[in-house]
Protein backbone atom coordinates (compact mmCIF):
# COMPACT_ATOMS: atom_id res chain seq x y z
CA UNK A 1 0.00 0.00 0.00
CA UNK A 2 1.27 3.50 -0.82
CA UNK A 3 1.10 6.19 1.84
CA UNK A 4 1.59 9.85 0.82
CA UNK A 5 1.69 13.23 2.52
CA UNK A 6 0.57 15.98 0.21
CA UNK A 7 1.84 19.53 0.21
CA UNK A 8 3.81 22.08 -1.68
CA UNK A 9 6.92 19.93 -1.42
CA UNK A 10 5.06 16.69 -2.18
CA UNK A 11 6.44 13.91 -4.34
CA UNK A 12 6.43 13.71 -7.32
CA UNK A 13 6.67 17.40 -8.34
CA UNK A 14 3.73 18.92 -10.16
CA UNK A 15 6.00 20.14 -12.97
CA UNK A 16 7.18 16.58 -13.52
CA UNK A 17 3.60 15.36 -13.79
CA UNK A 18 2.83 18.15 -16.23
CA UNK A 19 5.77 17.20 -18.43
CA UNK A 20 4.69 13.56 -18.47
CA UNK A 21 1.14 14.45 -19.43
CA UNK A 22 2.29 16.91 -22.11
CA UNK A 23 4.49 14.18 -23.60
CA UNK A 24 1.60 11.73 -23.63
CA UNK A 25 -0.65 14.21 -25.36
CA UNK A 26 2.02 15.11 -27.91
CA UNK A 27 2.61 11.47 -28.81
CA UNK A 28 -1.11 10.95 -29.17
CA UNK A 29 -1.26 8.03 -26.73
CA UNK A 30 -4.43 9.43 -25.17
CA UNK A 31 -6.00 10.43 -28.49
CA UNK A 32 -8.68 7.75 -28.18
CA UNK A 33 -9.42 8.38 -24.51
CA UNK A 34 -12.78 10.06 -23.91
CA UNK A 35 -12.30 13.52 -22.42
CA UNK A 36 -13.93 14.65 -19.20
CA UNK A 37 -16.24 17.06 -21.01
CA UNK A 38 -17.32 14.27 -23.35
CA UNK A 39 -17.95 11.95 -20.42
CA UNK A 40 -20.04 14.56 -18.62
CA UNK A 41 -21.97 15.29 -21.79
CA UNK A 42 -22.57 11.59 -22.40
CA UNK A 43 -23.46 11.05 -18.75
CA UNK A 44 -25.89 13.96 -18.80
CA UNK A 45 -27.52 12.75 -21.99
CA UNK A 46 -27.90 9.26 -20.54
CA UNK A 47 -29.21 10.67 -17.26
CA UNK A 48 -31.68 12.93 -19.04
CA UNK A 49 -32.84 10.14 -21.31
CA UNK A 50 -33.24 7.70 -18.44
CA UNK A 51 -34.85 10.12 -15.99
CA UNK A 52 -37.07 11.99 -18.37
CA UNK A 53 -37.74 8.88 -20.42
CA UNK A 54 -38.86 6.96 -17.34
CA UNK A 55 -40.97 9.90 -16.15
CA UNK A 56 -42.55 10.44 -19.53
CA UNK A 57 -43.33 6.77 -19.96
CA UNK A 58 -45.02 6.67 -16.56
CA UNK A 59 -46.94 9.91 -17.16
CA UNK A 60 -47.79 8.80 -20.69
CA UNK A 61 -49.19 5.52 -19.43
CA UNK A 62 -51.21 7.43 -16.84
CA UNK A 63 -52.56 9.90 -19.40
CA UNK A 64 -53.48 7.15 -21.83
CA UNK A 65 -55.23 5.32 -19.04
CA UNK A 66 -57.05 8.53 -18.04
CA UNK A 67 -58.01 9.11 -21.69
CA UNK A 68 -59.46 5.62 -21.96
CA UNK A 69 -61.30 6.06 -18.67
CA UNK A 70 -62.61 9.49 -19.75
CA UNK A 71 -63.95 8.15 -23.05
CA UNK A 72 -65.64 5.20 -21.35
CA UNK A 73 -67.15 7.52 -18.72
CA UNK A 74 -68.44 9.89 -21.42
CA UNK A 75 -69.94 7.05 -23.43
CA UNK A 76 -71.52 5.53 -20.32
CA UNK A 77 -72.99 8.76 -18.95
CA UNK A 78 -74.27 9.90 -22.32
CA UNK A 79 -75.82 6.52 -23.07
CA UNK A 80 -77.61 6.40 -19.71
CA UNK A 81 -78.80 9.99 -20.10
CA UNK A 82 -80.17 9.44 -23.62
CA UNK A 83 -81.85 6.15 -22.60
CA UNK A 84 -83.78 8.01 -19.88
CA UNK A 85 -84.86 10.89 -22.16
CA UNK A 86 -88.69 10.96 -22.67
CA UNK A 87 -88.26 11.90 -26.34
CA UNK A 88 -86.27 8.71 -26.85
CA UNK A 89 -88.84 6.53 -25.11
CA UNK A 90 -91.59 8.20 -27.13
CA UNK A 91 -89.66 7.55 -30.37
CA UNK A 92 -89.46 3.83 -29.58
CA UNK A 93 -93.16 3.72 -28.76
CA UNK A 94 -94.07 5.57 -31.95
CA UNK A 95 -91.51 3.57 -33.96
CA UNK A 96 -89.94 6.73 -35.36
CA UNK A 97 -87.86 9.68 -34.16
CA UNK A 98 -89.29 13.15 -34.05
CA UNK A 99 -87.44 16.04 -35.66
CA UNK A 100 -86.90 17.51 -32.21
CA UNK A 101 -85.14 14.32 -31.06
CA UNK A 102 -82.99 14.19 -34.17
CA UNK A 103 -81.84 17.82 -33.69
CA UNK A 104 -81.18 17.15 -30.01
CA UNK A 105 -78.98 14.12 -30.75
CA UNK A 106 -77.15 15.91 -33.58
CA UNK A 107 -76.24 18.75 -31.21
CA UNK A 108 -74.99 16.27 -28.61
CA UNK A 109 -72.62 14.66 -31.11
CA UNK A 110 -71.30 18.02 -32.34
CA UNK A 111 -70.71 19.23 -28.78
CA UNK A 112 -68.77 16.19 -27.51
CA UNK A 113 -65.34 15.39 -28.92
CA UNK A 114 -65.29 11.89 -27.49
CA UNK A 115 -68.62 10.89 -29.11
CA UNK A 116 -68.84 10.22 -32.83
CA UNK A 117 -71.88 7.96 -33.12
CA UNK A 118 -75.31 7.69 -31.44
CA UNK A 119 -77.61 4.99 -32.73
CA UNK A 120 -81.16 4.15 -31.67
CA UNK A 121 -82.40 0.70 -32.77
CA UNK A 122 -85.55 -1.21 -31.94
CA UNK A 123 -85.79 -4.88 -31.04
CA UNK A 124 -85.88 -5.76 -34.75
CA UNK A 125 -82.49 -3.98 -35.13
CA UNK A 126 -84.01 -1.25 -37.31
CA UNK A 127 -82.37 2.13 -36.77
CA UNK A 128 -84.60 4.92 -35.44
CA UNK A 129 -81.71 7.39 -35.39
CA UNK A 130 -78.17 7.53 -36.82
CA UNK A 131 -75.65 10.33 -37.16
CA UNK A 132 -75.89 9.76 -40.90
CA UNK A 133 -79.59 10.43 -41.54
CA UNK A 134 -79.55 8.41 -44.75
CA UNK A 135 -78.99 5.30 -42.68
CA UNK A 136 -82.10 5.80 -40.54
CA UNK A 137 -84.43 2.89 -41.17
CA UNK A 138 -81.62 0.51 -42.08
CA UNK A 139 -80.65 -2.45 -39.92
CA UNK A 140 -78.03 -2.12 -37.18
CA UNK A 141 -74.60 -3.65 -38.03
CA UNK A 142 -71.67 -4.84 -35.93
CA UNK A 143 -72.70 -8.25 -34.66
CA UNK A 144 -72.18 -7.33 -30.99
CA UNK A 145 -75.81 -6.55 -30.09
CA UNK A 146 -76.90 -9.94 -28.73
CA UNK A 147 -76.29 -9.08 -25.07
CA UNK A 148 -78.18 -5.78 -25.15
CA UNK A 149 -81.20 -7.56 -26.56
CA UNK A 150 -81.18 -9.53 -23.31
CA UNK A 151 -81.18 -6.30 -21.30
CA UNK A 152 -77.43 -6.03 -20.52
CA UNK A 153 -75.31 -2.88 -20.41
CA UNK A 154 -71.71 -3.29 -21.65
CA UNK A 155 -68.78 -1.91 -23.62
CA UNK A 156 -67.78 -3.47 -26.89
CA UNK A 157 -65.55 -2.92 -29.90
CA UNK A 158 -66.82 -3.66 -33.39
CA UNK A 159 -66.83 -2.38 -36.96
CA UNK A 160 -69.95 -0.41 -37.71
CA UNK A 161 -71.13 1.45 -40.77
CA UNK A 162 -68.66 4.30 -40.04
CA UNK A 163 -65.69 2.08 -39.18
CA UNK A 164 -63.96 0.56 -36.15
CA UNK A 165 -65.64 1.82 -32.95
CA UNK A 166 -65.59 1.60 -29.17
CA UNK A 167 -69.24 1.21 -28.18
CA UNK A 168 -71.47 1.37 -25.13
CA UNK A 169 -74.81 -0.46 -25.28
CA UNK A 170 -77.80 0.64 -23.16
CA UNK A 171 -81.25 -1.03 -23.31
CA UNK A 172 -84.30 1.31 -23.42
CA UNK A 173 -87.14 0.19 -21.12
CA UNK A 174 -90.80 1.16 -20.94
CA UNK A 175 -91.18 3.06 -17.66
CA UNK A 176 -94.52 1.41 -16.90
CA UNK A 177 -94.11 -2.18 -18.07
CA UNK A 178 -90.29 -2.36 -17.76
CA UNK A 179 -90.36 -4.06 -21.12
CA UNK A 180 -87.37 -3.49 -23.39
CA UNK A 181 -88.32 -1.30 -26.34
CA UNK A 182 -84.92 -1.24 -28.05
CA UNK A 183 -81.41 -0.09 -27.35
CA UNK A 184 -79.01 2.81 -27.72
CA UNK A 185 -75.37 2.64 -28.85
CA UNK A 186 -73.02 5.52 -28.02
CA UNK A 187 -69.65 5.08 -29.76
CA UNK A 188 -66.31 6.74 -30.39
CA UNK A 189 -64.43 5.96 -33.58
CA UNK A 190 -61.03 4.34 -33.07
CA UNK A 191 -59.54 6.88 -35.48
CA UNK A 192 -60.71 9.64 -33.13
CA UNK A 193 -59.19 7.82 -30.13
CA UNK A 194 -55.89 7.33 -32.02
CA UNK A 195 -55.82 11.02 -32.95
CA UNK A 196 -56.18 12.02 -29.31
CA UNK A 197 -53.43 9.61 -28.34
CA UNK A 198 -51.06 11.13 -30.92
CA UNK A 199 -51.72 14.53 -29.40
CA UNK A 200 -50.66 13.13 -26.01
CA UNK A 201 -47.51 11.62 -27.56
CA UNK A 202 -46.60 14.91 -29.21
CA UNK A 203 -47.04 16.86 -25.98
CA UNK A 204 -44.78 14.51 -24.03
CA UNK A 205 -42.15 14.40 -26.79
CA UNK A 206 -42.06 18.21 -26.91
CA UNK A 207 -41.51 18.28 -23.16
CA UNK A 208 -38.67 15.77 -23.52
CA UNK A 209 -36.94 17.87 -26.19
CA UNK A 210 -37.29 21.02 -24.09
CA UNK A 211 -35.68 19.41 -21.03
CA UNK A 212 -32.93 17.94 -23.22
CA UNK A 213 -32.25 21.35 -24.75
CA UNK A 214 -31.79 22.79 -21.26
CA UNK A 215 -29.81 19.84 -19.82
CA UNK A 216 -27.14 19.52 -22.52
CA UNK A 217 -25.86 23.12 -22.35
CA UNK A 218 -25.91 22.88 -18.55
CA UNK A 219 -23.78 19.73 -18.72
CA UNK A 220 -21.36 21.40 -21.14
CA UNK A 221 -20.93 24.38 -18.84
CA UNK A 222 -20.40 22.05 -15.86
CA UNK A 223 -17.77 20.03 -17.74
CA UNK A 224 -15.98 23.19 -18.79
CA UNK A 225 -15.87 24.47 -15.23
CA UNK A 226 -14.54 21.16 -13.82
CA UNK A 227 -11.84 20.88 -16.48
CA UNK A 228 -10.78 24.45 -15.79
CA UNK A 229 -10.41 23.60 -12.09
CA UNK A 230 -8.13 20.66 -13.10
CA UNK A 231 -5.89 23.02 -15.10
CA UNK A 232 -6.91 21.39 -18.35
CA UNK A 233 -5.84 17.85 -17.41
CA UNK A 234 -8.06 14.82 -17.64
CA UNK A 235 -8.77 12.74 -14.48
CA UNK A 236 -7.68 9.60 -16.37
CA UNK A 237 -4.20 11.08 -16.77
CA UNK A 238 -3.96 11.67 -13.03
CA UNK A 239 -5.31 8.30 -11.99
CA UNK A 240 -3.30 6.42 -14.62
CA UNK A 241 -0.03 7.98 -13.49
CA UNK A 242 -0.56 7.25 -9.79
CA UNK A 243 -1.95 3.74 -10.35
CA UNK A 244 0.97 2.79 -12.57
CA UNK A 245 3.43 4.19 -10.06
CA UNK A 246 1.75 2.36 -7.19
CA UNK A 247 1.79 -0.95 -9.05
CA UNK A 248 5.44 -0.59 -10.01
CA UNK A 249 6.59 0.46 -6.55
CA UNK A 250 4.60 -2.21 -4.74
CA UNK A 251 5.85 -4.97 -7.04
CA UNK A 252 9.47 -4.27 -6.15
CA UNK A 253 11.34 -6.51 -3.74
CA UNK A 254 13.35 -3.46 -2.61
CA UNK A 255 11.89 -1.11 -0.06
CA UNK A 256 11.56 2.52 -1.14
CA UNK A 257 11.15 5.43 1.28
CA UNK A 258 10.95 9.00 -0.03
CA UNK A 259 11.29 12.14 2.10
CA UNK A 260 10.90 15.82 1.31
CA UNK A 261 13.63 18.44 1.72
CA UNK A 262 12.87 18.68 5.45
CA UNK A 263 13.20 14.92 6.00
CA UNK A 264 9.48 14.17 6.42
CA UNK A 265 8.25 10.88 4.96
CA UNK A 266 6.21 11.36 1.80
CA UNK A 267 6.15 7.86 0.30
CA UNK A 268 6.62 4.28 1.48
CA UNK A 269 6.13 1.28 -0.79
CA UNK A 270 4.81 -2.07 0.43
CA UNK A 271 8.22 -3.73 0.84
CA UNK A 272 9.57 -0.82 2.89
CA UNK A 273 6.46 -0.72 5.07
CA UNK A 274 6.93 -4.41 5.88
CA UNK A 275 10.66 -4.05 6.40
CA UNK A 276 10.49 -0.94 8.60
CA UNK A 277 7.07 -1.55 10.22
CA UNK A 278 5.98 1.96 9.27
CA UNK A 279 2.28 2.65 9.85
CA UNK A 280 0.17 5.38 8.20
CA UNK A 281 0.33 7.54 11.33
CA UNK A 282 4.09 7.83 10.84
CA UNK A 283 3.57 9.63 7.54
CA UNK A 284 1.85 12.68 8.93
CA UNK A 285 4.41 14.67 10.90
CA UNK A 286 7.28 12.21 11.35
CA UNK A 287 10.88 12.54 10.29
CA UNK A 288 12.47 9.38 8.92
CA UNK A 289 15.58 10.02 11.05
CA UNK A 290 13.39 10.09 14.17
CA UNK A 291 12.02 6.62 13.37
CA UNK A 292 15.17 4.99 11.94
CA UNK A 293 18.29 7.11 12.51
CA UNK A 294 20.40 4.21 11.17
CA UNK A 295 19.33 5.12 7.63
CA UNK A 296 20.83 8.62 8.12
CA UNK A 297 18.76 10.19 5.38
CA UNK A 298 19.53 13.60 6.91
CA UNK A 299 23.18 13.26 5.85
CA UNK A 300 22.14 12.89 2.21
CA UNK A 301 19.82 15.90 2.50
CA UNK A 302 22.64 17.93 4.04
CA UNK A 303 25.40 16.91 1.61
CA UNK A 304 23.35 16.32 -1.51
CA UNK A 305 25.60 13.35 -2.35
CA UNK A 306 24.38 9.81 -3.00
CA UNK A 307 25.59 6.79 -1.02
CA UNK A 308 25.38 3.22 -2.32
CA UNK A 309 25.46 -0.26 -0.73
CA UNK A 310 25.69 0.97 2.85
CA UNK A 311 25.17 -1.95 5.24
CA UNK A 312 22.89 -1.26 8.24
CA UNK A 313 21.08 -3.35 10.83
CA UNK A 314 17.38 -2.63 11.45
CA UNK A 315 16.16 -4.83 14.28
CA UNK A 316 17.10 -8.37 13.29
CA UNK A 317 17.32 -7.62 9.56
CA UNK A 318 20.57 -7.00 7.70
CA UNK A 319 19.92 -4.36 5.03
CA UNK A 320 21.84 -2.81 2.13
CA UNK A 321 20.82 0.84 1.77
CA UNK A 322 21.20 3.26 -1.14
CA UNK A 323 20.51 6.94 -0.41
CA UNK A 324 19.88 9.10 -3.47
CA UNK A 325 19.07 12.84 -3.48
CA UNK A 326 16.25 14.13 -5.71
CA UNK A 327 16.89 17.34 -7.61
CA UNK A 328 14.97 19.45 -10.07
CA UNK A 329 16.69 22.29 -11.88
CA UNK A 330 19.45 22.24 -9.29
CA UNK A 331 17.06 22.46 -6.33
CA UNK A 332 17.07 19.68 -3.74
CA UNK A 333 13.50 18.41 -3.41
CA UNK A 334 14.16 15.47 -1.10
CA UNK A 335 15.80 12.06 -1.07
CA UNK A 336 14.98 8.39 -1.62
CA UNK A 337 16.27 5.47 0.44
CA UNK A 338 16.32 2.13 -1.40
CA UNK A 339 16.50 -0.82 1.00
CA UNK A 340 17.40 -4.41 0.13
CA UNK A 341 17.10 -7.26 2.61
CA UNK A 342 20.56 -8.82 2.59
CA UNK A 343 19.33 -11.79 4.64
CA UNK A 344 16.63 -12.55 2.07
CA UNK A 345 19.09 -12.15 -0.80
CA UNK A 346 21.41 -14.65 0.83
CA UNK A 347 18.56 -17.11 1.42
CA UNK A 348 17.41 -16.88 -2.18
CA UNK A 349 20.95 -17.39 -3.44
CA UNK A 350 21.22 -20.54 -1.36
CA UNK A 351 17.87 -21.77 -2.72
CA UNK A 352 18.93 -21.09 -6.30
CA UNK A 353 22.29 -22.87 -6.02
CA UNK A 354 21.04 -25.77 -3.88
CA UNK A 355 23.49 -24.86 -1.08
CA UNK A 356 20.76 -25.07 1.54
CA UNK A 357 20.03 -28.69 0.58
CA UNK A 358 23.72 -29.58 0.91
CA UNK A 359 23.84 -27.85 4.30
CA UNK A 360 20.74 -29.76 5.42
CA UNK A 361 22.40 -33.00 4.29
CA UNK A 362 25.58 -32.24 6.26
CA UNK A 363 23.54 -31.23 9.29
CA UNK A 364 21.58 -34.48 9.21
CA UNK A 365 24.74 -36.56 8.87
CA UNK A 366 26.39 -34.65 11.71
CA UNK A 367 23.37 -35.10 13.95
CA UNK A 368 23.15 -38.82 13.23
CA UNK A 369 26.92 -39.19 13.79
CA UNK A 370 26.69 -37.46 17.20
CA UNK A 371 23.82 -39.73 18.25
CA UNK A 372 25.84 -42.83 17.39
CA UNK A 373 28.95 -41.48 19.12
CA UNK A 374 26.91 -41.00 22.26
CA UNK A 375 25.73 -44.63 22.08
CA UNK A 376 29.37 -45.84 21.75
CA UNK A 377 30.49 -43.59 24.62
CA UNK A 378 27.68 -44.93 26.78
CA UNK A 379 28.65 -48.58 26.07
CA UNK A 380 32.28 -47.88 26.97
CA UNK A 381 31.33 -46.15 30.21
CA UNK A 382 29.23 -49.11 31.38
CA UNK A 383 32.08 -51.50 30.62
CA UNK A 384 30.79 -53.11 27.44
CA UNK A 385 33.71 -52.73 24.99
CA UNK A 386 32.74 -55.87 23.06
CA UNK A 387 29.18 -54.54 22.55
CA UNK A 388 30.62 -51.19 21.48
CA UNK A 389 32.88 -52.97 19.00
CA UNK A 390 29.96 -54.91 17.56
CA UNK A 391 27.89 -51.68 17.35
CA UNK A 392 30.70 -49.88 15.53
CA UNK A 393 31.17 -52.81 13.16
CA UNK A 394 27.45 -52.93 12.43
CA UNK A 395 27.29 -49.17 11.80
CA UNK A 396 30.31 -49.30 9.54
CA UNK A 397 28.86 -52.20 7.57
CA UNK A 398 25.46 -50.51 7.33
CA UNK A 399 26.94 -47.18 6.28
CA UNK A 400 29.24 -48.89 3.83
CA UNK A 401 26.33 -50.76 2.28
CA UNK A 402 24.12 -47.66 2.10
CA UNK A 403 26.88 -45.42 0.75
CA UNK A 404 28.03 -48.06 -1.72
CA UNK A 405 24.45 -48.63 -2.93
CA UNK A 406 23.83 -44.91 -3.39
CA UNK A 407 27.17 -44.12 -5.03
CA UNK A 408 26.86 -47.14 -7.29
CA UNK A 409 23.57 -45.83 -8.65
CA UNK A 410 24.19 -42.08 -8.26
CA UNK A 411 27.61 -41.22 -9.68
CA UNK A 412 27.02 -37.48 -9.44
CA UNK A 413 28.89 -36.77 -6.18
CA UNK A 414 26.89 -33.68 -5.16
CA UNK A 415 23.61 -35.47 -5.79
CA UNK A 416 24.84 -38.58 -3.96
CA UNK A 417 25.87 -36.53 -0.93
CA UNK A 418 22.47 -34.83 -0.98
CA UNK A 419 20.60 -38.17 -0.98
CA UNK A 420 22.73 -39.55 1.87
CA UNK A 421 21.82 -36.50 3.90
CA UNK A 422 18.12 -36.89 3.06
CA UNK A 423 18.29 -40.54 4.14
CA UNK A 424 19.75 -39.51 7.50
CA UNK A 425 17.06 -36.85 7.85
CA UNK A 426 14.36 -39.45 7.16
CA UNK A 427 15.78 -41.80 9.78
CA UNK A 428 15.57 -38.96 12.34
CA UNK A 429 11.90 -38.44 11.44
CA UNK A 430 11.12 -42.19 11.40
CA UNK A 431 10.39 -42.05 7.67
CA UNK A 432 11.41 -44.90 5.38
CA UNK A 433 13.40 -43.61 2.40
CA UNK A 434 13.67 -45.89 -0.64
CA UNK A 435 15.98 -45.30 -3.56
CA UNK A 436 14.47 -47.44 -6.31
CA UNK A 437 16.89 -50.12 -7.53
CA UNK A 438 16.65 -49.13 -11.20
CA UNK A 439 17.92 -45.62 -10.44
CA UNK A 440 20.97 -44.60 -12.42
CA UNK A 441 22.67 -41.20 -12.80
CA UNK A 442 26.01 -40.55 -14.59
CA UNK A 443 28.73 -38.39 -13.10
CA UNK A 444 27.82 -35.53 -15.45
CA UNK A 445 24.23 -35.14 -16.57
CA UNK A 446 23.51 -34.39 -20.23
CA UNK A 447 20.30 -32.57 -19.34
CA UNK A 448 20.92 -30.52 -16.16
CA UNK A 449 23.78 -28.64 -14.59
CA UNK A 450 25.03 -29.83 -11.21
CA UNK A 451 23.33 -26.97 -9.31
CA UNK A 452 20.05 -27.41 -11.20
CA UNK A 453 20.10 -31.19 -10.53
CA UNK A 454 20.62 -30.66 -6.79
CA UNK A 455 17.96 -27.93 -6.69
CA UNK A 456 15.39 -30.06 -8.51
CA UNK A 457 15.88 -33.32 -6.59
CA UNK A 458 16.46 -31.59 -3.25
CA UNK A 459 13.19 -29.63 -3.43
CA UNK A 460 11.15 -32.58 -4.69
CA UNK A 461 12.42 -34.87 -1.90
CA UNK A 462 12.11 -32.16 0.78
CA UNK A 463 8.50 -31.48 -0.20
CA UNK A 464 7.75 -35.22 -0.02
CA UNK A 465 9.40 -35.52 3.43
CA UNK A 466 7.39 -32.57 4.77
CA UNK A 467 4.17 -34.03 3.32
CA UNK A 468 4.78 -37.37 5.08
CA UNK A 469 5.95 -35.75 8.31
CA UNK A 470 2.76 -33.70 8.51
CA UNK A 471 0.91 -36.95 9.25
CA UNK A 472 0.90 -38.10 12.83
CA UNK A 473 2.77 -41.30 13.60
CA UNK A 474 0.53 -44.33 13.52
CA UNK A 475 -1.81 -42.91 10.88
CA UNK A 476 -0.35 -45.13 8.16
CA UNK A 477 2.83 -45.81 6.22
CA UNK A 478 5.50 -43.12 6.33
CA UNK A 479 7.46 -43.65 3.14
CA UNK A 480 9.26 -41.60 0.50
CA UNK A 481 10.46 -43.30 -2.69
CA UNK A 482 12.82 -41.81 -5.25
CA UNK A 483 13.57 -42.99 -8.78
CA UNK A 484 16.21 -41.18 -10.86
CA UNK A 485 17.14 -42.58 -14.22
CA UNK A 486 19.13 -40.97 -17.00
CA UNK A 487 20.15 -42.41 -20.34
CA UNK A 488 21.07 -40.95 -23.69
CA UNK A 489 17.45 -40.17 -24.56
CA UNK A 490 15.94 -38.83 -21.35
CA UNK A 491 16.20 -37.98 -17.67
CA UNK A 492 13.32 -38.95 -15.38
CA UNK A 493 12.87 -38.17 -11.67
CA UNK A 494 9.92 -39.64 -9.77
CA UNK A 495 9.19 -38.96 -6.10
CA UNK A 496 6.36 -40.81 -4.31
CA UNK A 497 5.16 -40.10 -0.80
CA UNK A 498 2.43 -41.35 1.53
CA UNK A 499 1.47 -37.89 2.77
CA UNK A 500 -1.93 -36.23 2.92
CA UNK A 501 -2.22 -35.84 -0.85
CA UNK A 502 -3.78 -32.94 -2.72
CA UNK A 503 -7.12 -31.93 -4.17
CA UNK A 504 -7.43 -31.13 -7.92
CA UNK A 505 -7.48 -27.42 -7.05
CA UNK A 506 -4.25 -27.71 -5.06
CA UNK A 507 -2.63 -29.67 -7.91
CA UNK A 508 -3.52 -26.88 -10.33
CA UNK A 509 -1.96 -24.31 -8.00
CA UNK A 510 1.20 -26.43 -7.82
CA UNK A 511 1.36 -26.56 -11.63
CA UNK A 512 1.22 -22.78 -11.74
CA UNK A 513 4.14 -22.57 -9.31
CA UNK A 514 4.51 -20.78 -5.99
CA UNK A 515 1.89 -22.83 -4.13
CA UNK A 516 2.53 -24.08 -0.62
CA UNK A 517 0.29 -25.38 2.12
CA UNK A 518 2.92 -24.39 4.69
CA UNK A 519 1.86 -20.76 4.98
CA UNK A 520 3.07 -17.35 3.97
CA UNK A 521 6.56 -16.86 2.48
CA UNK A 522 6.68 -20.57 1.56
CA UNK A 523 6.34 -22.32 -1.76
CA UNK A 524 9.79 -21.22 -2.97
CA UNK A 525 10.70 -24.87 -3.64
CA UNK A 526 7.93 -25.29 -6.20
CA UNK A 527 8.91 -22.03 -7.89
CA UNK A 528 12.51 -23.24 -8.17
CA UNK A 529 11.33 -26.58 -9.57
CA UNK A 530 9.19 -24.74 -12.10
CA UNK A 531 12.17 -22.53 -13.01
CA UNK A 532 14.42 -25.56 -13.64
CA UNK A 533 11.71 -27.14 -15.81
CA UNK A 534 11.15 -24.01 -17.88
CA UNK A 535 14.89 -23.33 -18.30
CA UNK A 536 15.67 -26.87 -19.47
CA UNK A 537 12.54 -27.86 -21.35
CA UNK A 538 11.20 -30.33 -18.80
CA UNK A 539 7.68 -31.52 -18.08
CA UNK A 540 5.99 -32.35 -14.78
CA UNK A 541 3.24 -34.89 -14.09
CA UNK A 542 1.40 -34.85 -10.74
CA UNK A 543 -0.82 -37.70 -9.52
CA UNK A 544 -2.34 -37.29 -6.09
CA UNK A 545 -5.26 -38.50 -4.03
CA UNK A 546 -6.39 -36.81 -0.86
CA UNK A 547 -5.47 -38.96 2.12
CA UNK A 548 -3.42 -41.44 0.05
CA UNK A 549 -0.31 -39.59 -1.10
CA UNK A 550 1.31 -37.89 -4.06
CA UNK A 551 3.50 -38.95 -6.99
CA UNK A 552 5.42 -36.28 -8.94
CA UNK A 553 7.36 -37.15 -12.10
CA UNK A 554 9.56 -34.74 -14.03
CA UNK A 555 11.05 -35.68 -17.38
CA UNK A 556 13.61 -34.13 -19.71
CA UNK A 557 14.08 -35.35 -23.27
CA UNK A 558 16.34 -34.23 -26.06
CA UNK A 559 13.34 -33.29 -28.17
CA UNK A 560 11.90 -31.12 -25.39
CA UNK A 561 15.15 -29.55 -24.33
CA UNK A 562 15.23 -25.77 -24.86
UniProtKB/TrEMBL annotation:
It is an enzyme of class 2 (transferase). It is a multi-pass membrane protein. SMART domains: HATPase_c, PAS. One of its GO terms (cellular component) is plasma membrane. CDD domains: PAS. Its main location: membrane. Its EC number is 2.7.13.3. Residues 364-560 form the Histidine kinase domain. The chain crosses the membrane at residues 40-60, 204-223. Pfam families: HATPase_c (PF02518), PAS_8 (PF13188), sCache_3_2 (PF17203), SPOB_a (PF14689). GO terms for molecular function: ATP binding; phosphorelay sensor kinase activity. Keywords: ATP-binding, Cell membrane, Kinase, Membrane, Nucleotide-binding, Phosphoprotein, Transferase, Transmembrane, Transmembrane helix, Two-component regulatory system. It catalyses: ATP + protein L-histidine = ADP + protein N-phospho-L-histidine. Coiled coil: none annotated. InterPro entries: 2C_sensor_his_kinase, HATPase_C_sf, HATPase_dom, His_kinase_dom, PAS, PAS-like_dom_sf, sCache_3, Sensor-like_sf. It is found in: Cell membrane. PANTHER family: SENSOR PROTEIN CREC, SENSOR PROTEIN RSTB. This is histidine kinase.
Amino acid sequence: MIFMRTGASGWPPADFLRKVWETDMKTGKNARVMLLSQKLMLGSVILVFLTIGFTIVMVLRLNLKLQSHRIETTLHDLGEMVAANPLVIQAFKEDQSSEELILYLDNLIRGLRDVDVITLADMRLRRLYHVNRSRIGENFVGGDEERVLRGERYFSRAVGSLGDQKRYFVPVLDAETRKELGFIVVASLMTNIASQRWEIYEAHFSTFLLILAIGLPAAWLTARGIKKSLLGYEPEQLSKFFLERDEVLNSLEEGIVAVDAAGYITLVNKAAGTMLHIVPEDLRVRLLDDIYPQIRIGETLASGEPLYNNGIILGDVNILCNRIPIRENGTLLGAVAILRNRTELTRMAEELTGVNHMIDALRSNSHEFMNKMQVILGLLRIGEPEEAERYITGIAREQSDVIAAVLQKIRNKNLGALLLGKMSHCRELDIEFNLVGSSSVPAVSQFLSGDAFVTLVGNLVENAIEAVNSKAKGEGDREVSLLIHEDERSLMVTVDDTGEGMTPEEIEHVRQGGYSSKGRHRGTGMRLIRSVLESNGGEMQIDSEKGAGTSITVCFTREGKL
